[in-house]
């Protein structure tokens, strides 16, 4: 049975859940395309203000189905390339989505599941959850941006341990290193992620979208260029409705109400 992607909404938060107990929520081309479309649609939907990505059955995702990986060796290389392109499109849709995406990792994430979790803007994990870049164990190299996201968040030596040895690393260690935002009691990852998403959903949406873009491009340009970019963005937002509400609320000593969005 293939993994199904189920979606639900509540108070501006879209929850995407991978359901595939037999394979610990393994994903392939069908799931890549479903998730890509979900991220793109959410990015254009004003009623979606934050996204939570999680897995059912006490595990986030085991990544690619090993049987499918073996079968793919019999496919034409052009077909394998199309599968890779679909994976690339899913990851880029998540990263390009202007809404914050929060991973709720219960139990663990392996292979592409690790890549998918770390591609999110924030990660919540249960105590003892294991993160594994297991590719090398079957003679493969990482995909889905694993080395990019790991190197973005972790020292080179720890990335080398994860990817060259395929050793599981616990959530607590990744929290200490800064790659995981919160570690919670087993069974609590989804609720904690929903709480973070709820906080984002009540925030200034236009500003949050710009902040996500600023974080994504930080380090790609020289400091002077990034300073200029930040300057353009803050001056653009300065005259918007969100800043008007936020500044007024601060001066009036009340909580801001960003629910009407920006014009």
Automatic annotation (TrEMBL):
Family under the similarity heading: Belongs to the enoyl-CoA hydratase/isomerase family.
InterPro entries documented for this protein: ClpP/crotonase-like_dom_sf (IPR029045), Enoyl-CoA_hydra/iso (IPR001753), Enoyl-CoA_hydra_C (IPR014748)
Gene Ontology MF terms in the entry: catalytic activity
Organism, as annotated: Sagittula marina
Protein name, per record: Enoyl-CoA hydratase/carnithine racemase
Gene3D superfamilies: 2-enoyl-CoA Hydratase, Chain A, domain 1, Lyase 2-enoyl-coa Hydratase, Chain A, domain 2
Coiled coil: none
């Amino acid at each position: 049975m293939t993994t199904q992607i189920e979606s639900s909404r509540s108070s501006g938060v879209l929850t995407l859940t991978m359901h595939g107990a037999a394979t610990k929520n393994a994903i392939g081309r069908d799931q890549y395309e479903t998730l890509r479309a979900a991220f793109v649609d959410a990015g254009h939907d004003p009623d979606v203000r934050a996204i939570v990505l999680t897995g059912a059955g006490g595990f986030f995702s085991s990544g690619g189905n090993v049987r499918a990986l073996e079968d793919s060796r019999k496919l034409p290389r052009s077909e394998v390339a199309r599968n890779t392109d679909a994976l690339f499109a899913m990851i880029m849709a998540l990263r390009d989505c202007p809404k914050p995406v929060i991973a709720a990792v219960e139990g663990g994430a392996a292979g592409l599941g690790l890549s998918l979790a770390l591609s999110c803007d924030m990660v919540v994990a249960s105590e003892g959850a294991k993160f594994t870049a297991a590719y090398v164990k079957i003679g493969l190299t990482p995909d889905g941006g694993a080395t990019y996201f790991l190197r973005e968040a972790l020292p080179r030596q720890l990335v080398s341990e994860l990817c060259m040895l395929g050793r599981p690393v616990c959530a607590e260690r990744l929290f200490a290193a800064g790659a995981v935002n919160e570690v919670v009691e087993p069974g609590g990852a989804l609720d904690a992620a929903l709480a973070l998403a709820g906080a984002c959903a009540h925030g200034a949406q236009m500003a949050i979208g710009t902040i996500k873009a600023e974080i994504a491009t930080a380090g790609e340009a020289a400091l002077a260029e990034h300073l200029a970019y930040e300057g353009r963005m803050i001056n653009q937002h300065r005259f918007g409705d969100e800043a008007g509400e936020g500044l007024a609320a601060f001066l009036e000593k009340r909580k801001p109400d960003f629910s009407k969005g920006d014009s």
